[in-house]
Amino acid sequence: MIFICLRLFKMLLMVSLITSLKSSLPEIYNLNGVNIKKGFMSLEHIFPKCYMNKQSFNDLHNIYKCNNLINNHRSNYKFIDESLVDLNEFKRLYETDNFISSKYQLFIPEKESRGIIARSIMYMSFEYNYKFNKVIDSDVLIEWCLKYPPNKEELYHNHIAFIQQFKKNKFIDLYNKKNYKSYINKLFS
To answer: Measured between alpha carbons, how far is 150 from 168 in angstroms, rounded to an integer?
Structure first.
């Protein structure tokens, strides 16, 4: 009973932290700041909870604020790059640059969110030894990580996560190091 109360308390603290820092932390799938008139802020697990064990549910490196309607549409669909599919089979979500195919259970995120997504998945895969192939293909993961460098919001999110759980996402911290590309290719190819 005490364990359940502590877990609930920890989750409430996390929700409070993320929602109280609305202006500072990135809103995944809407870094362009499109005014979505529907929905409210919720928490998105980039690496879907259905592929995780409970010990990692509350890891802040995997949790970002998100419009609940986009979050619900994304579900646990696999991330994919638009260059690999026919966009005519996808539906645009609201006024954002996110697309979904319910038929194929695929999600194309806006370009601005792709680096965050890649490095979050890398972190979860490395830290908890999770298989990422149900979430994203290896070549897309590596391409997004390298093509979309960490922005100030992602760096700030990494800092806040470190303050809360004393762990940094090394795939953000090492981004500008000399052997970064070969390192992530070795780990994720």
So the answer is: 13
Contact 82, 140 (CB under 8 A): no
The tens-digit pLDDT sequence of the chain (189 residues) is 664 545 555 555 555 555 554 556 788 998 877 888 788 888 999 999 999 999 999 999 999 999 999 999 999 999 999 999 999 999 999 989 999 999 999 999 999 999 999 999 999 999 999 999 999 999 999 999 999 999 999 999 999 999 999 999 999 999 999 999 999 999 999
pTM, rounded to two decimals? 0.88
- CA 40 vs CA 24, 70, 71, 72: distances in Å: 17, 10, 10, 12
Identify the helix (H) or strand (E) that includes residue 43. Answer: strand 41-45
Q: Which two tokens stand for residue 96?
A: 């954002």
What is the CA angle 15-162-48, rounded to 5?
55
Q: Which amino acid is at 151?
A: N
